[in-house]
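User: Can you predict the 3D structure for this chain?
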Amino acid sequence: MDSHYDMVMKAREGADPNATRLYFAYSTILDRAAFEEWRQQHSYGFFDLPEGRLAEAVDVDLVYDFPSRWWGGRVAGLADAPGGRIFGRLFEIRGQDWPIVQHKEGFVTGMCVERPVKVLVDGQTVEATAFVTNPRRASQDGPVSPRFVEALVRGAQAAGLPSDYVERLKRGP
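Assistant: Here is the predicted structure, written as structure tokens:
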């Protein structure tokens, strides 16, 4: 358990248990094994990430804009890119579980911010929330983390994202 657990649990208590949020996940949270490890390390064993649906965010692209000491290099966020497309999974998250997702994505530490994205799923366009690098912390300094790219690819494969997209991720930025 880390120092953010109490803050997350308090936010859960104040959340509407009947509300839901659409969450577009495109990064390392898609690696189920790594997510399970994180979940246990942070005492969230009671929370299960739902199955989710294959989805594609439109008019955005990956940008490696967050230098991470933990990853040993820059990691990816999203940036506006007319015509760009990023695959991921769309999850419906209960309102009381949203603070856990925020914790996993780095929102509670100020690393990331929430942003709306247009997502194509099952032939429909919906608006969902994605997490992107906090603009105050964005930087192009340093190399891209090879370890992060490996985790990104592993997550994309585990999530069943299209093979040509997985190949694109393997090539990196």
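The first helix runs from residue 5 to 14. The helical segments are 5-14, 32-41, 98-105, 146-158, 163-171.
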